[in-house]
Amino acid sequence: MLIGAEAVAVWLVVEPCDMRKSIDGLAQAVVDSLHRQPISGEVFAFRNQARDKVKLLWWDKNGFWVAYKRLEAGKFRWATAGGRIELSELMLLLEGVDLCVPRLRRVEVQQVN
């Protein structure tokens, strides 16, 4: 994620989270699950047990932001191992793309004379 000109890490919390948690509960989950600091400026992603809801938590130097998404149909395909992901992967995850399935990658071909 870009905030200003800085790249920011995005972290997935693998364990399901109680979506009734607000900022303080999510911040504590960051410490307990990922052993990271919630005020680091990094983005932390949580999902519920049913995998149809996601919350994002991040600090922007003035306070916390919480974003929430609920799917009307389908489920989020969450990785079985947590950890750091790229913003582009987070955007795909929030759109419902299964990141656990291997994907073909674009390869640049150089012409040889």
Topology record:
Elements: E1 2-3, E2 6-7, E3 10-12, H1 23-34, E4 43-47, E5 53-59, E6 64-70, E7 83-85, H2 87-94
Question: Can you offer a commentary on this structure?
Answer:
This protein has one domain (2-94). With 113 residues, it is of the alpha+beta class. The strands form two sheets. The chain has a five-stranded mixed β-sheet with strand order 6-5-4-3-7. Strands 1-2 form a two-stranded antiparallel ribbon. A hairpin with a 4-residue loop joins strand 5 and strand 6. It is built from two helices and seven strands; from the N terminus they run βββαββββα. The model is unreliable at 1-5 (pLDDT under 50). The longest helix is centred in the N-terminal third of the chain and has 12 residues, at 23-34.
Strand-residue proportion:
25-35%
| Rounded mean pLDDT score | 80
| Tally of domains | 1
Gap between N and C termini, in Å?
Answer: 40 Å
**Shape descriptor:** globular
Briefly note the structural class of the backbone: alpha+beta
Brief rundown of the structure:
This protein has 113 residues and is an alpha+beta fold. The protein has helices spanning 23-34, 87-94, and strands at residues 2-3, 6-7, 10-12, 43-47, 53-59, 64-70, 83-85.
Give keywords.
two-stranded antiparallel sheet, 113 residues, disordered N terminus, alpha+beta, globular, 2 helices
